Amino acid sequence: MVESLQSIAKMIDHSLLHPQLTDRDLIAGCTLAHRHAVASVCIKPYAVAMAREILIGSEVRVGTVIGFPHGSNRIDIKIRESEQTLADGAEELDLVVNIGKVLSQDWTYVSEEIKVINNLVIAREGIVKVIFENDFLTDRRYKLKLCEICSTLAVAFVKTSTGFGFVKQANGAYDYLGATDDDLVLMREHCIPSIQIKAAGKVRTLDDILRVRELGATRVGATATESILKEARERGFV
Q: Can you give the residue ranges of every domain in the chain?
């Protein structure tokens, strides 16, 4: 079976979130996304308006992040950030849960935060992707509860990771696992069918995308978009 290059491109949210990316880098990233007709860019909040201008007339949606990367802002601040990014032209908002509240098992707080922002974004014809940051949730019960909350609220997407959830390893170095097979299976099995899954964190090759797609992911967060699509063309995707 010959795969479609477009089907792979339309799984990619081209990630433009690294702190060291300059305005020139962000412009180049939006231009790359436009050229390859990926699903969206996920860009730093301050650059949403710029991305919207670059991508006018394209199929590429403008996305950004809320409460990034650790979800620790107050709910009213996350609401204000959401309102501003929507006003600037964002269509897809990747919302980081309040990780401390998840680990505190304050489910009322967690649910209310997701609910109010999801309702706000839906009213503006956008979608929310709720980032669990699974590297910080060593007890799977936290992930299961987030799946339950997101299913009750019928969010558009749940997402594995920010790509910046670094955890101290046994050797003293900081690293993260990102989108693991186990987490993707759990999220697919325990979220309602209408919720889509976004795999983010260490999705760097075509084989990575094909693997997470088999596990139920319909979007991926990727910085290696150019090389992934180059590999797809070389392997006969048309």
A: 5-234
CA–CA separation, 146 vs 103, rounded Å? 11
CATH architecture for residues 5-234: Alpha-Beta Barrel (3.20)
| % of residues, the chain, pLDDT over 70 | 99
Please list the residues that pair with 127 across neighbouring strands.
92
H or E element in which residue 28 lies: helix 23-36
Compute CA distances 224 → 77, 219, 231, whole Å.
32, 14, 11
- Joined tokens for residue 200: 């983010």
Please say if 139 is a catalytic residue. no
Catalytic pick among 13, 94, 135, 208: 94
Q: How confident is the model at residue 81 (pLDDT cuts 50, 70, 90)?
A: very high
The yes-or-no answer on residue 44 being catalytic is no
The per-residue b/e assignment along 51-66, b for 16 or more CB within 10 angstroms, e otherwise, is bbebbeeeebbbbbbb
Dist CA 55 CA 41 (whole Å): 9
Respond yes or no: is residue 25 known to be catalytic: no
